[in-house]
Design goal:
This protein is an all-beta fold and about 120 residues long. The chain has no helices and 5 strands. The chain is globular and about 30 Å long. The N and C termini lie far apart (about 35 Å). The N terminus is likely disordered.
């Protein structure tokens, strides 16, 4: 049985994002304490629902933060949201490390996470 070797040319990494090479916008979601009338740009002003992102098409380098310990019973739809090789669009968790990562259930939706024509996520 041949050894499983990764070719030398196959280097997978996530590039370091800095304010010098990318303007990063941050969007925060908290299904428990969030409020869709707020700005969504800090943990304290987080939005409640993922659909609140729809008018703000994420740009290369943007980060979407979902609060740990929350559950999102809706879909995250990212259609024609395009990052770049140097500036991925990232979906991350924030909050206490001791709390569970936030599941996206997608109840009533065909898919919990819908990605279409959206490279570099």
């Amino acid at each position: 049985m041949a050894a499983n070797r990764t070719p030398a040319w196959a280097k997978w990494y996530l590039p370091e994002l800095t304010e010098q090479n990318v303007a990063v916008r941050k969007f925060y979601f908290d299904s428990t304490r969030g409020d869709d009338t707020r700005s969504g740009d800090t943990p304290e002003t987080a939005w409640k629902s993922l659909t609140r992102l729809n008018p703000f098409k994420p740009l290369p380098g943007d980060h979407l933060f979902l609060r740990r310990g929350c559950r999102f019973d809706e879909a995250l739809e990212l259609d024609q949201v395009v990052g770049t090789a140097d500036a991925f669009i990232r979906v991350l968790a924030f909050g206490l490390e001791s709390e569970a990562k936030p599941p996206i259930d997608g109840k009533g939706y065909p898919a919990a996470i819908y990605l279409a024509n959206s490279p570099y996520l």
